[in-house]
protein-tyrosine-phosphatase (Parnassius apollo), 442 residues
Amino acid sequence: MHTASAHKAPSGFLSFRLVAALVRQDKYDVGSGEQFDDLVGLIEHFRSYPMIETSGDVLRLLQPVSGTCIRAHDINQKVMEMDDILKSDSKCGFDAEFHSLKIIEDLHVFTMDEGTKTENMAKNRYRNILPYDQTRVILRKTGDGQETDYINANFIRSSRLCDSSSSVQSSNESLNSVQSLILRNDSRKSASLVTKSLSDDALREVKKIIRMDKINGNLRRNIVKDKVYIATQGCLSNTVDDFWQMIWQEDVRVVAMITNETEGGKKKCERYWPLAGHEERYYNLFVKSISETCYEDYLLRELDVTDDKKQCRTIYQYQFTTWPDHGAPPEPDGVLTFIDDINRRMYLNSQDGNAPEQNVLCVHCSAGVGRTGTFIVLDMLIDKIKMSGFNSDIDVHNTVKTVRSQRRGMVQNKAQYRFIYLALQSYIDNKSLKKKIYTIEA
């Protein structure tokens, strides 16, 4: 595939930064239909025959950037070529590839109106980090005086369409909650069975039917492909109840917390879980801390959550404690172990008799974009390698672009962007972690 991003040039023409990719037939293209043997031929062609927008703006090529899609087993060569720490030209390598994302993100036409409403502004940890309306998680109103359905959180899917219809589709999916995707597969042949209009009782009945189908062997699920992320900010004191409402509503069983409560003397996340051995009430849920296990880089808390109808679920919270804010860990091994442990837990959850119908992983740091985005992109690419092997194609740039089209600013800086490459390199080279495809067949 090809990617192009645009910004206004001083001359008034619409200038392009070209990201031309090598396609299967060893040709280069920018999606206009023409293919060329090399970049020189491509550039010379579009200099002579420029592309013109319907508005009359001329699209001219500004600067070529190397292709971003590679074979997984070629990661060492890619990192060596891209690592610009020792290069004097900051327009090369990771720097150019990361900064081209900003130009692409500026082209998005998604809105963030809900986060700027007066009644919702106090629910944002940072005024400049708001969820896209088109992919935001929408809380179901409970009728107990709840005035807003807002929480600073977005659904993130690896298979997001990048056309104009995707905003409408994603908005509808958010309205219906992630439960509406229960029986969807990648071909999206089947229609949603669950809609927002269903009551909780009706929803449970549908889930019983689906579970019976699983028992009878009529439903085949791929745990990796079924994964959906919720990217959100660290809780504020006034959003803890909203957070737990979201966790229960979307049937989240695993939470990845990538921040400490306080960092550098600043509050980064309100504690939203009870102390070990204690029980607290949040929203209409009773949350009891069952156990807490310490590992080298992270903590694992097991929480039993019960609603007012005596339904009980076990939630596993993984808190990574050694990832610096606005930065990246000094080495990737701890993060890779963290990811592997989380995915093993999600796989075990999927085999449980009370398994969630959708594999939803809630990820948050403080703002819910930097460390959160880096984790999600890395997890997506590792999942792809698990599914397709070390000869598969991986594209860090395009994956970050896909994630950013669902929550603004994901992967905040070049250090985090480079860390994704280094962690993938370690994962592929090491091969010491289990690379298991989390798939079940009922």
